[in-house]
Structures are given as structure tokens and as C-alpha cells.
Amino acid sequence: MADKDVRDIRRTYDHDVLLEEDAGMDPFALFSRWFDQALASEMEGTAMTLSTGGEHPSSRTVLLKEFRNGEFVFFTNYASQKGQAISNHPNVSLLFFWQTLQRQVRIQGQATKVSEQESVDYFQSRPFESQIGALASHQSDALVNREELDQRYEDLLEVYRNKTVPKPDHWGGYAVIPERIEFWQGRPSRLHDRLLYIKSGNNWQRKRLSP
Amino acid sequence: MADKDVRDIRRTYDHDVLLEEDAGMDPFALFSRWFDQALASEMEGTAMTLSTGGEHPSSRTVLLKEFRNGEFVFFTNYASQKGQAISNHPNVSLLFFWQTLQRQVRIQGQATKVSEQESVDYFQSRPFESQIGALASHQSDALVNREELDQRYEDLLEVYRNKTVPKPDHWGGYAVIPERIEFWQGRPSRLHDRLLYIKSGNNWQRKRLSP
After folding, report:
1. Which of B33, B60, B190, B208 is catalytic?
2. Which CATH superfamily is domain A20-120+170-208 in?
3. In 3D, which of A180, A211, A146, A195 has the Cα closest to residue A70?
4. Secondary structure letter of residue B101 according to DSSP
5. For chain A, which residues make up each domain, given as ranges?
6. Model ipTM?
7. CA–CA separation, B65 and A5 (whole Å)
8. Residues B189, A111: contact at Cβ < 8 Å?
9. Does the active-site annotation cover B7?
10. Record: contact A65-B4, CB cut-off 8 A
11. N or C: lower Cβ tally within 10 Å for chain A?
12. In this predicted model, what pLDDT tens digit does every residue of A113-167 receive, in sequence order?
């Protein structure tokens, strides 16, 4: 096993600054601006880390599929590891790390299932092959080998060719309703700008954190 | 607040495959190979999401500073939010998402402090300005405004000009000792390859997971 010392790898973060007068008091408006910029410059601007809690926290990348009414929506298999983790611990965190912009957005909030209709609508909007892929995969269960998955996929392709693929029962969306949103802009000498918004009733309080 | 529907943004993951015969039984050897490739092709190959658990999981990006003896080392302020979270819940997760390679590595394990000497050695290897930045920031505490931080930084620059900057008492490294490591390679039609290694005594067990 090769050991690897990468301690001298560091970038200077000097792309932008984040000051109170530009940030404003509405974290969703700020998120929208940053998100638009990320979509224009990032390879995977919609990618976010979803972390679930408890004694054994777990993280994976998911794609943000909708941002609406201050809720962050993604879709998954409710019976997957992450679905079970959310069922046990509905408080989750989301993290966007937009490298080209030297920015992070850290979100903490509660995940709740979206309506069955919304899940059906989104599932029907996906490409046929992705629908079949979702059907073929018993997410997070063990497989004997790759061929087992490929065979199931091929079989289902034949079954549903030229038909509407039904949304699997255990497949659907979650909306994360944030309680805390932190915006992080990298700055030189590790003196990064951090603005934290905390929900307070129907309003948001904002404070600057030490980097 | 602008709502944003990005449901039709999706990439086809077709860069590579991850099969058992190539992966082998040693997750550290596989990590080393993938890490080398990430360093060659990613803007921030050492960047990883550190997630802490409990009832309110929290995530942030940190930089991997050393990978040695199967341990993943990063440095921070022990008194920061993340230091306190680790103190309360030493089980953490790490996530590398290497977009150019369409790969993720998900790690779960326990974080333990590295030796004081190792922390001193690394601190002394950092650029002078970053050392002063660490000294100037009472990490995660609130600041009145940006100027408060800049002024403290400027003052400390003068104090330590041409001197050795002492490592702050509360600053140091953590080594994460993994219990589970999952390698994820994106594949078309969401039929991704996932190989999970689980520590079992001194050995690792490997299984393929449904995507």
C-alpha cells in the first residue's frame, strides 16, 4: 500500500468575497444567485453531499432536482441505505462544494417525503433507460456480480419496451426544509468569509463566523 | 426568491468500470490508485467532505493532508464546531467525489487526534500567512464584521514578522481509521458499480452493492 503525503497541495482562494451588504438577509435569494453561477461554471453544479446522522454518519452524492419554496428536493429509493437512515434520523445535512467558484453552501434541516404524485411525475420525466435502471436495482442490497444486475436490466428492457414504466413503490423524493444555511467563500491566507443564516420563526438571523 | 427546476440536468457516466478482478481485496491499494488519478485530473483532488453525526449531522469540506498506514489525516482547530462534533461523536464519514473520473469513495470510521508532534510539524510546514490566519481566527465563533478579522490578522502579521509562529494549542490533526470503504464508479442508465469493503479483524470483506 502506497502512503501519500499531499500536505503541500494547496490553492489560493481569491476568486471572490462575500460581504454582508451583497449577501442580504434572504438566504434563498443568495442561494439562487450562487446556484445560477454554479450551473454556468461547474461540471456538476447540481451535485450535493447528503449526510445522514446518528452514531454512524454516512455521506453520498445526490443531485438536486428542484429548489422551490425554500426546499431542496432530490429523489432516491426509500428502501435504500439512505432512505432507511433518513427514516431513523430525519435531520440531514446537504453540502454544495463549487470548486470553480471557491464556494460552499452548508445546509442543515429536516427531510420529508414529497407527495406520491410529485414522485410519479418526476419518475415519468426520466429517460427510459434510467427508469429501467431504477427498476432493476434493489438499491444497497448485495449482488453476486455485475452480470446479475445487467441480466435483470436486459430482461426488464424487454418487458417494458414501448410501454410506460411504472414508478417502483419504494422510489420517490425528499424535500429538505432548512433550519441553518451557511455560505462559505474561500479567501487567501485561510481567512474565508462565512455567513450563517439561522431560521427564527418566519425570519432568518444572519451572523458572520470566524473561518 | 427564484425557484429552480433542474430536473433535466443529467450526465451520462461512461468514463470507466469497476470490476472485482481489477479492484482486488485491498481497499487501500485501490484507494491509492484512484487517488493518484484524482490528483492528476481534479482541480481539488484532496478535497473531501467530512461529516459528523448525532441528531444534527453536519458536513464541510476539508483537505486530506496525508494518507498513511490506512489512515486519512486532516488538520483543523480542535475547538471549532467540527472539533466539538468529533469529540461528541468520534464516528465520522469522509466522502471523495471526483467528478472528472465519475467516482466516489465513501469512508466510515473513527477519528482520533494525531500526536502533538505531528501537528506541530505540519503547522510549521504551512505558509507564514496561513499560520497567521489560523492564529487570527477563533474558528466558528461569531465576528462583528470582516474588519475585525482583518485587523487581528494585520496585528499578528506585525507581531510575528520574521519569527516562528507557534502552533495554537487547540489546533491539530485527526486521523480517520476506516471500518467501511465503498468505491463507486458511475455507469450509464444509473447502473453504477459499487464495491463495499468492510473491515473484519485484520482483513477486509468485499461485496458488490446494488446501485
Report:
1. B190
2. Electron Transport, Fmn-binding Protein; Chain A (2.30.110.10)
3. A180
4. T
5. 20-120+170-208
6. 0.96
7. 6
8. no
9. no
10. no
11. N
12. 999 999 999 999 999 999 999 999 998 899 999 999 999 999 999 999 999 999 9
> Which residues share a beta bridge with B172?
B76
pLDDT in tens, B60-99: 999 999 999 899 999 999 999 999 999 999 999 999 999 9
Strands B47-52 and B58-63: antiparallel
The whole-angstrom separation of Cα A207 and Cα A202 is 17
For cell 470553480, name the residue: A100
- Nearest-Cα distance to chain A for B167, in Å, is 15
CA distance B105 to B198: 13
All three cell numbers of B172: 491539530
Q: What percent of chain B clears pLDDT 90, i.e. is strictly above it?
A: 93
**pLDDT per position as a tens digit, A55-112:** 999 999 999 999 998 999 999 999 999 999 999 999 999 999 999 999 999 999 999 9
**Which CATH class for the B20-124+171-208 domain?**
mainly beta
* Dist. CA B49–CA B60, nearest whole Å: 5
Q: What is the identity of the amino acid at A175?
A: A
Tell me if B67 and A6 make a contact (CB, 8 A cut-off).
Answer: yes
| Residue of B51, B144, B190 lying closest to A130 (CB–CB) | B190
What burial letters (b/e) apply to B10-33, b meaning 16+ CB within 10 Å?
eeebeeeebeeeebeeebbebbbe
